[in-house]
Amino acid sequence: TKWVYSFGDGRAEGRASDRNLLGGKGANLAEMCSLGLPVPPGFTITTEVCTYYYSNDRTYPTDLDQQVEAALEEMGRIAGRRFGDPEKLLLVSVRSGARASMPGMMDTVLNLGLNDETVEALAKDSGDQRFAWDSYRRFIQMYGNVVLGIDHDEFEEILSDEKARHGYDLDTEFTADQWREVVGLYKEKVESEIGRPFPQDPREQLWGAIGAVFNSWMNPRAVTYRRLHDIPASWGTAVNVQAMVFGNMGETSATGVAFTRNPSTGEKALYGEFLINAQGEDVVAGIRTPQPLTEKARLESGSDKPSLEKAMPEAFATFVEVAKKLEAHYRDMQDLEFTIERGKLWMLQTRSGKRTTRAALKIAVDMANEGLITREEAVCRIEPASLDQLLHPTLDPNAPRDIIATGLPASPGAATGQIVFSPDEAEELKAHGVKTILVRVETSPEDIHGMHAAEGILTTRGGMTSHAAVVARGMGKPCVSGAGSLRVDYREGTMVALGRTFRKGDIITIDGGTGQVLAGAVPMQEPALSGDFSTIMEWADQIRRMKVRANAETPLDARTARKFGAEGIGLCRTEHMFFNDERILAMREMILSDTEEQRRAALAKLLPMQRADFIELFEIMAGLPVTIRLLDPPLHEFLPKTDEEIAEVAKSMDVNPKRLKERTEELHEFNPMLGNRGCRLAVSYPEIAEMQARAIFEAAVEAAKRTGQPVVPEIMVPLVGIVSELSFVKKIIDDVAKQVLEASGAKLDYLVGTMIELPRAALTADSIAREAEFFSFGTNDLTQTTFGISRDDAGAFLETYRKKGIIEQDPFISLDVDGVGALVKIAAENGRATRSGIKLGICGEHGGDPASIAFCERVGLDYVSCSPFRVPIARLAAAQAAC
Ligand code: ADP
Ligand code: MG
Ligand code: MG
């Protein structure tokens, strides 16, 4: 088996499409080499070795060693050097690289191959003692941490002691001799921690680092990240070994990161940060404040330090060319890592850049307009669920602002919450429903759970590409980074701003759009949906086949639905119209009635209220279809529970409270979910369906008159399992329609259909379709009844099922294609066989889930219906499903 793939000198054994085998980083390094870009030579150990390693008690394939030796040889040949040879010193980096990018999850070791002997060779070779010892101390710290498991802080402590001793502010102030002393202290530290000296043999170092990369695949950080992002453990990581280039060789050297377009706004302009005389992670770690790449960015940010454009114009010009070439090649915005060694540019990484939703929309629209991608591709580039971010509130521009600090606008949106200083606190408070802002000097992968739990993130150190900024953008969380004027004291639990002290628990607000940090809570406002958003939506609408409707019953929901582009109401749950103080009393009277007469009296009170609701709904949705479901839930949901409530109802009904209590008990059910509900209610109490039908038809006639547009109500009978149930209820509806239309002299079209939410209904869809003019798949209940799982009780075991790998996904979130989906498919096919034009839709929560929407497209449903706020998501997902 070939375990090792080499790259360098304009050639590579792998390519970008080998991502599964070489990991993202390795595949793209190979691709960049083949494109003729300046990439230090190296090789990639495949993800298959990782898989082998874990299925063979953490051992390697026997021929791996030999292949690595050959690749080292080749790398040395290209670099004109030799690994482990002090005469022609070759140092390497060892970098992990999984298939899916896992930022910060795996650790990289730089300057590998240095030891007490080779450090002298490096000094001689480069003519720079300071550089050599700086590199060695970095190597010992990284290797000590990543491979030997010694805490970073152990080294940082030594470093800050030395800094203090010399009275320095910055690492760059150390002299060669002082670094040499630090190296001595580091080595002592290592020996005291691990009980043996720091490894001097370069090959031992190399295999130690390779092993550490493979081991890190299973470290808790990586495991958590994979769980949060649904990445299977079986994918494994690759290891990249690459010749070092040095950004820390003095003032003509530098290291940096860049995006080919602005990852926050999407603006088409090179965007990034760099540091002179620095190495690797210095930029993202926020050790010094990085400098902007371009003059334009420098002017905009008001930075007093020179841009790369100014400081190293030649290297900058080359970099601009490379960035252009890579973006055009990958046809997407790229996230780049580079190092400049004594004026020469080297590329170390390229990948598709993470971006905010706003930026994603702008980039997709711009690239389509530039002709780089098609409109279909543009539509497919947007993660539907990410549109949620746009619906984030922003600060009310007219509200007073008590600004206590300004940092960088690292991730948009605004958030208010209590200050917490530790990720654990954020998590704990979240469990109690308390909103928090996580305040840190800077964040690291250990803080991810807290970042998830917090409403927003505030750091006092680090730039736009710091860990906090990158992760927050990925999560769609507001973030302000590098608010340098704030002083955070974890031990005291305080944050000092302009002389004001804020404590844990105090409320602050952050504005990730401007970088402002504000005292107290600030009023927010709904976002204005940008031009790019509507462009993408327009394109999506041209592509998609399925219609998108909303589940709505209140005027507010209906208006929101229209604003977001809903093409009708797919589910109006009439019972929701009864859950308010004034109405529930009439509802209770109706339910608790002993006789039909009493019941009709109570229903007569409800009729005008229902009618008024429907008129308003029809008016708002003028010209669009509205599906109204007859009363569905078990009656006990409306029953009085406390003695007080019983007394109140008894009084209004003028009956004895004791008798009323008995009646309540009679109505008790053991399994209300499977009890007297849905169409069963209409069969037991036909007058309820009668009243609702009357309200619908009278409202439709009135609304048509008022709006001048025809109203076509679609009346939906819930929980049908037997076709004769539907025939029974349909007759009631038809009779009422006749009465209303005769009385008013109006004309009206209407449809009567049913929800398919019982397996029996799905299996007998051919006969049900004789009566039903439409089917709407009620996949919430259909999932419950297919699995035999009560959704309300599922919480106790579904998560366990997921953890133990019994199920992959919660079937109430993403439609179970194999089981529930099979029933949907049967019902759709058999329904159509009976009635060829039968309208088919879905109205469960799944109607807003992109994966479920793709399934609906496959079975050829006519529309999906979801909550109003998910309508844009559904429009986009429906378009992607149709692509
Ligand atoms: P991550 O996945 O965390 O970005 P990387 O492997 O990309 O980890 O590397 C971490 C840092 O080290 C980056 O800044 C990268 O540019 C730098 N680096 C990696 N390999 C080399 C090398 N061969 N020479 C110089 N710098 C390197
Ligand atoms: Mg990193
Ligand atoms: Mg990197």
Automatic annotation (TrEMBL):
InterPro entries: ATP_grasp_subdomain_1, PEP-util_enz_mobile_dom, PEP_util_AS, PEP_util_C, PEP_util_CS, Phosphohistidine_dom_sf, PPDK_AMP/ATP-bd, Pyruvate_phosphate_dikinase. GO terms for molecular function: pyruvate, phosphate dikinase activity. It holds the Pfam family PPDK_N. The keyword Nucleotide-binding applies. Residues 530-882 form the PEP-utilising enzyme C-terminal domain. It catalyses: pyruvate + phosphate + ATP = phosphoenolpyruvate + AMP + diphosphate + H(+). Residues 436-515 form the PEP-utilising enzyme mobile domain. It is an enzyme of class 2 (transferase). Its EC number is 2.7.9.1. Residues 20-56, 60-297, 316-369 form the Pyruvate phosphate dikinase AMP/ATP-binding domain. Keywords: ATP-binding, Kinase, Magnesium, Metal-binding, Nucleotide-binding, Pyruvate, Transferase. Its cofactor is Mg(2+). It comes from the Bacteria. Catalyzes the reversible phosphorylation of pyruvate and phosphate. Belongs to the PEP-utilizing enzyme family. NCBIfam families: PRK05878.1, pyru_phos_dikin. This is Pyruvate, phosphate dikinase.
